[in-house]
Amino acid sequence: MAKNRTLFLTDYCLTPHVNIPNAGILCEGNKIIAVGGASAFSLDEPGLHVIDLTHTCATPGFIDSHIHGGGGYDTGKALEPDADIGILCRHLAAHGITTYLPSLISYPREKMIALTAKLAELTEKSYPGADPYAINLEGPFINVRKCGSQNPEAVSPIDLGYARELIAAGGGRIKLLTFAPELKDADKLIELLLENGVIPSMGHSMAGPDDVLRAVDAGARRCTHLYNGLPPLHHRISSITDIMLTHDDISVELIVDGVHIDPRMVDITARVKPNDKIIGISNAIEFENTGNTPFIKKEDGLVYTRTGVIAGTSMTLETGWAHLRNYSHMPENLATACFTSNPAEDLGLITRGEIQPGKRADITFFDLETNKVCMTVSNGAIVYTAPEQT
């Protein structure tokens, strides 16, 4: 009986830990069953579908663990009757993302709970394109002095009752929650989050070293968009920022768009942090260019509040990947890990983030000359093919 298998052929494959030249990736159903040099595979197997992607490189499907919208979808409008998260799934697949965490900023309490419940409902379903795996809550327990573009009236002191309501609304789908470690009862919040499988992420904070180290001792091991929403580095005053940079056990998100963080600071971070603790994110938002919006989109592609605060990006991760390679001079495989295996490991996604036998078949193929996505495979299905590739 013929087996239903697909063999992808590519110039090279970044697993990402190993660079395999002239590579073949053999998939059966939604699993990768073999990867290696193309010459090791027989092309005569009955039922074998061979897809020759010459002039491309293969990476694991990218994972965006911090994204608020794009392509016409805004997580903050998830309750509206015409909101379709499938639009975002298809948009991201066209940019090489196979897994993402729809993220919420702070909203007034009742709306925050309702949006969390809606996103929990949506993330339980399957969609063609990128998989909205779980929810990321960027607030509401943050420092109002560092709320950035978030509504300060929606920011809340740590309220364990409120936190329990959010967790209940999430129905086990909340994976990340940003909090400021200097707030009262931060240690109790960390304990509650960890008990419910939620990763506490430190951010939007003015914390000094004592509060931060207490949070680390309590189990906090992640930082939301390092440098952004935090005090600047200072050569005489220690703060949350330098601890996030120098503490080897803490994973840090980086928005590598060239504006949120100066390229030299990206390079410094790459030199100081262990390579497996850097997680590239887009922090992308959906922007509507209407007269009623509180935001302005400028020529640099970023979105600002009308008072000049950066609100987010319209960037997708393949751009951040290219920037990280240029800014940090990381080897290509280590830069690739920042968008694949690093977020997978941090989130506990043991079947994703690597091109290895037994892993989920999430693969992205990039054109070697343009860095554009040629094809995206999610859970074994081809969910995007560039027009020229077709």
What is the number of helical segments per DSSP (H or I, 4+ residues)?
Answer: 10
Uncertain regions spanning at least 5 consecutive residues: none
Secondary-structure arrangement, i.e. CATH architecture of the largest domain: Alpha-Beta Barrel
Class per helix and strand makeup: alpha/beta
CATH class designation of the largest domain: Alpha Beta
User: Which overall shape is indicated by the principal axes computed on the Cα atoms?
Assistant: globular
Mean pLDDT: 93
CATH topology descriptor of the largest domain: TIM Barrel
Distance separating the two termini: 30 Å
Radius of gyration: 21 Å
CATH superfamily of the largest domain: Metal-dependent hydrolases
Instruction: State the helicity in percent bands.
Output: 10-25%
Largest sheet: 9 strands, parallel
Strand content: 25-35%
Total beta strands: 21
Total domain modules: 2
Q: How would you characterize this protein structure?
A:
The protein is α/β, with parallel strands linked by helices and 390 residues long. It folds into 2 domains: 5-60 and 353-385, Urease, subunit C, domain 1 (Roll); 62-347, Metal-dependent hydrolases (TIM Barrel). It is built from 10 helices and 21 strands. The protein has helices at 85-93, 109-123, 160-170, 186-195, 209-218, 240-246, 263-272, 317-328, 332-337, 341-347; strands at residues 5-14, 19-28, 31-37, 48-60, 62-67, 69-70, 73-74, 97-104, 131-132, 135-137, 174-179, 199-202, 222-223, 251-255, 278-281, 295-297, 302-305, 310-313, 363-367, 373-378, 381-385. The strands form 4 sheets. Strands 5, 8, 9, 10, 11, 12, 13, 14 and 15 form a 9-stranded parallel beta sheet that branches. Strand 8, helix 2 and strand 9 (131-132) form a beta-alpha-beta unit. Helix 3 (160-170) packs parallel to helix 4 and helix 7 (263-272) packs across helix 8 (317-328). The chain is globular. The two termini are 30 Å apart.
